[in-house]
Amino acid sequence: ETVLTQSPGTLSLSPGERATLSCRASQSVSSNYLAWYQQKPGQAPRLLVYGASNRATGIPDRFSGSGSGTDFTLAISRLEPEDFAVYYCQQYGGSPWTFGQGTKVEIK
Amino acid sequence: QVQLQESGPGLVKPSETLSLTCTVSGGSIGSYYWNWIRQSPGQGLEWIGYVYFGGNTNYNPSLKSRVTISVDTSKKQVSLKLTSVTAADTAVYFCARWGGGWKAADYWGQGTLVTVSS
User: Fold this and answer.
1) Taking the CB of residue B65, how many other CB atoms lie within 10 A of it?
2) Is pLDDT of A51 > 90?
3) How far is B110 from chain A (nearest CA, A)?
4) How many CB atoms lie within 10 A of CB B63?
5) Mutation test of the interface with chain A: which of B103, B110, B113, choosing the one with the most A Cβ atoms within 10 A?
6) Closest residue in chain A to residue B4, using alpha carbons only
7) What is the pLDDT of residue A87?
8) Among candidate residues A96, A102, A95, the one with its CA nearest the CA of residue A74
9) Across residues B42-59, what is the average pLDDT?
10) Parallel, antiparallel, or unpaired for β A63-68 and A71-76?
């Protein structure tokens, strides 16, 4: 099973600032099948990025994913008020699918 | 617009079977993998397993002995059964669609809370 470790656990930033979230895998993620999701309280996760670096339909270009192998990053170039949420990485290249424990982006 | 809606009992007694249904609307059920994913209160996400529209399944080894996921293409429904539940199975249960390949789980239901308690 591939364990995903996200850091930091919490990121305290102001609107307009840049956010950088990390996801490290315990083994190489097959085909870089690594996704990022955003989740707000009481809602389902929303797909932001798939295949490590591809934005999902309708996702603003301030969100960008990068990385390969075992190290992946989600960057939010300029935080908007609606971006404060919990972000999860997920690998779907091997079974079982696994998720990171999440990074909370909160307003400073 | 594709929509997924989970339904089922919100309260299940310990040792009994949890049964949920995911109804798909606004799109085809064919050629997709239909997943169940859960989230314990205040916790992270755990993948339970998926069923392909043709009936093939893949389960998380941690739950495999207790899980059955099935699909009814005529009703456009996906079902989850989890046997011998305990309080540790209390969670919000989501269904989610995956097209296979690199596109990840792109559509999710809103989730349904299931509490295991006597």
Assistant:
1) 9
2) yes
3) 5
4) 18
5) B103
6) A44
7) 98
8) A102
9) 92
10) antiparallel
